[in-house]
């Protein structure tokens, strides 16, 4: 694990893109996915994301999770890119983001949602994760 090979500005950008993409995806407007996700999670209109967590806890944990994902995506894009003759590229990073989503994120979260009975919520959530991982991989592959 070579932390010195990480482009920390790209990690910061990935974190920002992750948060913005999530805000747009679940933005709460009639055209965003939040109303459908809320409905898929519970039948009550009083449902609040984060449950009992206050925004003072919810948002810092979300930012930390985004940073961790970006750092580990950077490590993987760099490691796999170094095995390729041309090194990391935008297309390689996007492909790796898709593959990590397909192989790890989507199936792991599917298992959780299947047992909770929230398959529609899984589709909405994992769609956002797909977007996040492909964008992160593309940014990290393109900006070394």
What does this entry look like structurally?
It is built from 5 helices and no strands. The two termini are 16 Å apart. Helix 1 (8-25) crosses helix 3 and helix 3 (55-83) crosses helix 5. It has helices spanning 8-25, 34-41, 55-83, 90-116, 119-142. The chain is globular, with a radius of gyration of 16 Å. Helices cover 74% and strands 0% of the residues. By secondary structure, the protein is mainly α.
Structure at a glance:
This protein has 144 residues and is mainly alpha-helical. 74% of the residues lie in helices and 0% in strands. It is globular, with a radius of gyration of 16 Å.
Q: Share of helix among residues?
A: over 70%
- Give the class from helix and strand content and strand pairing: mainly alpha
Beta content comes to under 5%
**Count of DSSP-assigned helices:** 5
Order of helices and strands: HHHHH
Assign an overall shape: globular
Low-confidence stretches: none
Keywords, separated by commas or semicolons:
mainly alpha; 5 helices; 0% strand
């Amino acid at each position: 694990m070579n932390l010195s090979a990480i482009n920390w500005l790209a990690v910061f950008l990935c974190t920002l893109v992750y948060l913005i993409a999530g805000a747009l995806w679940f933005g709460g407007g009639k055209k965003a996915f939040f109303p459908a996700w809320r409905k898929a999670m519970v039948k009550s209109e009083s449902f609040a994301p984060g449950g009992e967590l206050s925004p003072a806890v919810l948002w810092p944990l979300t930012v930390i999770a985004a940073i961790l994902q970006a750092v580990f995506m950077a490590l993987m894009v760099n490691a796999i890119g170094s095995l390729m003759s041309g090194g990391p590229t935008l297309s390689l990073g996007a492909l790796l983001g898709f593959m990590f989503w397909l192989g790890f994120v989507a199936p792991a979260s599917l298992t959780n949602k299947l047992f909770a009975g929230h398959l529609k919520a899984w589709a909405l959530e994992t769609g956002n994760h797909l977007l996040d991982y492909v964008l992160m991989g593309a940014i990290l592959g393109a900006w070394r």
